[in-house]
Write a structure and sequence with these properties.
The protein is an alpha+beta fold. The protein has two domains: 3-37, no CATH class; 49-291, putative xylanase like fold (Roll), CATH 2.30.260. It has twelve helices and ten strands. α7 (118-129) packs across α8. The longest helix is centred in the N-terminal third of the chain and has 18 residues, at 3-20. The protein starts with a helix and ends with a strand. The model is unreliable at 9-46 (pLDDT under 50).
Amino acid sequence: MNINIKSQLIWVIILYPIIYYPQVLATPYQLNRLVTLSYNTETTYPNQELSKKAIEQKIPVAMNEAEIEFLQNKITNWPIGKRIAYWAARFIGTKYDPDPLGLYVRSNRIVTDEAVDCMYHTFRAVELAQSRTPHEAIQKALNLRFISRGELVNDKVTNYDQRFQYGEDMVYSGKWGQNITSRLGRVRRIKGSRGRSKVTILPKSTLKTRTFRNKLQDGDIVFWVKNPRKRVVGEIVAHLSIVHIKKGRPYIIHASGLKRSKRRAGGGVVKEVLFSRYVRKMSFIGAFITRF
């Protein structure tokens, strides 16, 4: 073979992979990095740590399903109470749902993270805490939100009329944790309603004590009880919130706002308040407490 032709062939053999497949000349570290980028599903973008921090700053409505699932799995080994408090806190800053019926009910949806009232906020925090994927959270919702079980057809709930509409029904159902009211301090019996002649609550005087506050734990659900004289449709519970312990002190996270009416536009926001401060200023006469 002509020497010039042989020389050209040799250069083609040398240069071709460099031009078209430069990775074949990668160092062992670079090759390992290429494999990692190809097969490690956690490494999908160059600034991974920056992206993770960005997710941590988002409220749920701003997250996609992959981001929600990332956070669910990040805390999957935490105790259930801490997971509930974590998700409750993720909603801080979310606008309050002023719809008297509830946006989730009126739209027949499971997920309406764009606007939340106190019941939906509690629903969603517990559902996300008890699951590892957004889909699993929806399945949890179909069990937890309903006296029986929810039904979905084409992603729409068809039986929201069978949902929990009264907080006290959640307390006594057993689905929303164990009712530990009587274990936390001095209790009081008050007039019941809707088939319950009397109910046992923690009165405001007990809620004010440090001894009581020291018994609270992350994720405890507080069902605030209104004065029987102020009941409108037989409701015992008027508001819900979730406990978050920070530096040994209990706070409550709750959707704080007003429902829309003829006299007002309604509105508010999810916020966190020191438990003792809330109790001191509230108009409620006491509370039930449940714990998972």
